[in-house]
Amino acid sequence: MNKKLIVIDSNKVDMLKLANIIGDSYDIVSKHDIEMMVEQRVDEIIRDRETEQESKRVAQIGELLSMIAHQWRQPLASISIATMAGRTKLELGIFDLDDSKGIDECKNKIIENYYKIDNFVQSLSQTIDNFRDFFKPNKESKMVNIDLSILRAIQITEDSLISDNIKIIKDLKCSKDIEVYDSELMQVFLNILKNSQDCFRDKKSIENPYIYIESIETKQGVDIIFTDNGGGIDSDIIEYIFDPYFSTKLESVGTGLGLSMSKTIIEKHHKGKIRVKNREDGVSFTIELKDTI
Questions:
Q1: Which long-range contacts (CB under 8 A, 24 or more apart) does 252-255 make?
Q2: Using an 8 Å Cβ cutoff, are 211 and 160 in contact?
Q3: Do residue 280 and residue 191 come from a single domain?
């Protein structure tokens, strides 16, 4: 039998006498006990929510650090290539330092590498700024020509791609400016280029590897298409490649955040679309952006 509950003020009523009078059909609880139980439960809920919020903050910081590490790999690799190339030429005696012409060639090469390294360092610094503002809703957008953003991304990756004998084919036909978060968008381009490069490195047997980049003006905005001949993505996993932490690479190489972050940048920050599909001999990423965000 279900008992009925009686809440009383225990300061005014003798609870023992009341229990003897009404018998076993009722549960008697004092008002004070109810208040204590409610207060205890509220405290538990507050502690649980604080713990949950703290866990979310820690997870977000961890994700942020992983994304920064992911984005730093390319500029750091390019810095390494620039310094190694200069050092190797000096060690092999390619420059004739006993001749004024050789000295000038050596000096010009060193200056060229310094400029490259400076650009790469600026890219590292920009990455910090980008992700510092990544989750902010009030970021500042600007009107840019998408082709210039693509060219900047190519400039950062060029030396590394050349060292892997990967050819970049550009077909950029965008003349109008559109509203974007420029630095964030460049990170998307870098992610896609890096993914293609990693694919070529993994497979190694692909002849004449290339990445074809095309920009097309549309009525609504601009489409950017990256296509490679790296053999494509397994049909069993292609639908998952934009999921957070999903990666086909070794843990030391990939975090599984690059394409997930790219999807967030394109679809949430820019209100656009990003799609992937296999081609005959590779994969194609299509980014659709509107004239205004």
A1: 253/198, 254/70, 254/198, 255/66, 255/67, 255/69, 255/70
A2: no
A3: yes
Pick from 202, 203, 206: which is nearest to 167 by CA?
206
Instruction: Kindly state whether residue 108 falls inside one of the protein's structural domains.
Output: no
Tally the C-alpha atoms within 13 A of residue 81's C-alpha that lie toward its C-beta. Answer: 17
Q: Which residues contact 58 (CB under 8 A, 6 or more apart)?
A: none
Is 267 exposed, middle or buried, given 0-12, 13-18 or 19+ CB atoms closer than 10 A?
A: middle
Express each pLDDT in 122-138 by its tens digit.
877 777 766 666 556 66
Q: Which pLDDT tens digit goes with each residue over 188-198?
A: 998 899 889 88
DSSP annotation of 23 reads G
DSSP H or E segment with residue 107: helix 100-132
Sorted by sequence, the CB contacts under 8 Å of residue 265 that are 6+ apart come out as: 181, 184, 185, 187, 188
**Which residues, other chains included, contact 264 with Cβ-Cβ below 8 Å and sequence gap of 6+?**
none
- Give the span between the Cα atoms of 155 and 95, in whole angstroms: 26
Number of domains in the chain: 2
What the block records as the tokens of 147 is 């082709």
65, two tokens: 């650090």
Amino acid, res. 284: S
Q: Is 133 among the domain residues?
A: no
